[in-house]
Write a structure and sequence with these properties.
With 353 residues, this protein is an alpha/beta fold. The protein contains 16 helices and 13 strands. The chain binds uridine-diphosphate-N-acetylglucosamine.
């Protein structure tokens, strides 16, 4: 089968790696299309190199812009490539503007679409990713859901017949990278951070970066939090400068990290403090308490099991949780056993081969 895999943003490169490896192992022809939504060395190129991904056959170079501009450019470029290359299946990952553009381009050209990480919902339509998820699931032919919550969400929207539960491909990626990840102490030394207890902080959600009040409320809560290592997303770096916000002295800003380095840090940290979707789950898998700087999460099981606390961008709530980080009494393997890529390809082969 000729598969066109569409990616564009950092978390998709990570999800692509196990998928791509398994697809090629089974003898499928894969064409890799990078929309160019993320384009920096640290946000993109490094991931292709370190995850041993083949260089993309196509890079659309859509770059930054409004959601409309970015999605429209990607839609136009992907449609042209589908027409030129005639794949038998388009595969999209996650919930970014690149995911939406890929699914929509294929659906309009009557090429089947499979969505990896289908069925996640925050039920907050103000989140750009939530709009993308809903639209992508409704125009895809095969919905590859990571867990029972996602299956339930899809059934509620009348999409059960197209859904298959396959486990979470981020678990495959995490298990693979852990085999060769550096020690956290090595990563800290390289970053110039003295070894000892620390928290890992990431912030990039539009709801936190675009509102100076939210961003400064988060920073205020971190003042007494001990050593905090903060890989700064380009969006956040720009927001800090635009709002003229200073980081507390105990918060050390560092460049965006590679996947192996981030996993090493998340595993060794006392707490992960984040508004990322993927990192909440990685914290759970690594048994690190997580503080989520949002009012809702797609990964509700991590909260129900007591490993994740939702604090929003609220100084008092963040401070309170930092005093007693969430550590669940049990740690069941709710995201599968790291064999999602094989289950995804089984479902694809059964449906389309
Ligand atoms: C996007 C995804 C989000 C995902 C995140 C991971 C959407 C709507 N959002 O958010 O779901 O969790 O990626 O990072 O698709 N920039 C650079 N260099 C880069 C990439 C971005 O400098 O390589 C800057 C640009 O100024 C850009 C800003 O970062 O405007 C934000 O990038 P963008 O892709 O719009 O959204 P993210 O916040 O990264």
């Amino acid at each position: 089968m000729h598969i066109l895999s569409v990616v564009g943003a950092r978390p998709q490169f990570i999800k692509l790696a196990p998928f791509s490896r398994e697809a090629r192992r089974r003898g499928h022809q894969e064409t890799l299309l990078h929309t160019g939504q993320h384009y920096d060395e640290g946000m993109s190129d490094r991931f292709f190199r370190e995850l041993n991904l083949p260089a993309p056959a196509i890079n659309l170079g859509v770059g930054s812009g409004s959601h409309a501009t970015m999605t429209a450019r990607a839609l136009e470029g992907i449609a042209a490539e589908i027409e030129a290359r005639q794949p038998s299946l388009v595969v999209v990952f996650g919930d970014t503007n690149s995911t939406l553009a890929g699914a929509l381009a294929a659906a309009k050209l009557h090429v089947p679409v499979a969505h990896v990480e289908a069925g996640l919902r925050s039920f907050n339509r103000a989140m750009p990713e939530e709009v993308n998820r809903v639209l992508v699931d409704h125009c895809s032919d095969l919905l590859l859901a990571p867990n029972t919550t996602a299956m339930h969400n899809l059934a509620t929207e009348g999409l059960a017949a197209r859904a298959v539960q396959v486990g979470d491909i981020m678990v495959d990626a995490l298990y693979t990278v852990r085999e060769t990840a550096p020690a956290a102490s090595e990563v800290l030394t390289e970053l110039g951070v003295p070894s000892g207890p620390f928290s890992l902080l990431t912030i990039h959600r539009a709801s936190n970066t675009d509102d100076p009040a939210s961003l400064s409320a988060i920073l205020a809560a971190l003042v007494g939090a001990g050593t905090v290592v903060f890989p700064v997303h380009p969006r956040t770096r720009a927001a800090l400068a635009a709002h003229q916000l200073e980081l507390p002295a105990n918060v050390t800003p560092v460049e965006p990290q590679g996947y192996a380095q981030l996993v090493a840090l998340a595993g060794a940290a006392d707490t992960v403090i984040t508004d990322s979707g993927g990192l909440q789950k990685e914290a759970y898998l690594l048994e690190t308490p997580c503080i989520t700087l949002r009012e809702e999460t797609e990964w509700t099981e991590t909260v129900e099991l007591g490993w994740n606390a939702l604090t929003g961008a609220d100084t008092a709530r963040i401070t309170a949780v930092l005093q007693a980080p969430p550590r669940g009494a049990t740690h069941p393997s709710i995201y599968g056993d790291g064999a999602a890529a094989a289950a995804i390809l089984d479902a694809i082969d059964a449906r389309f081969a």
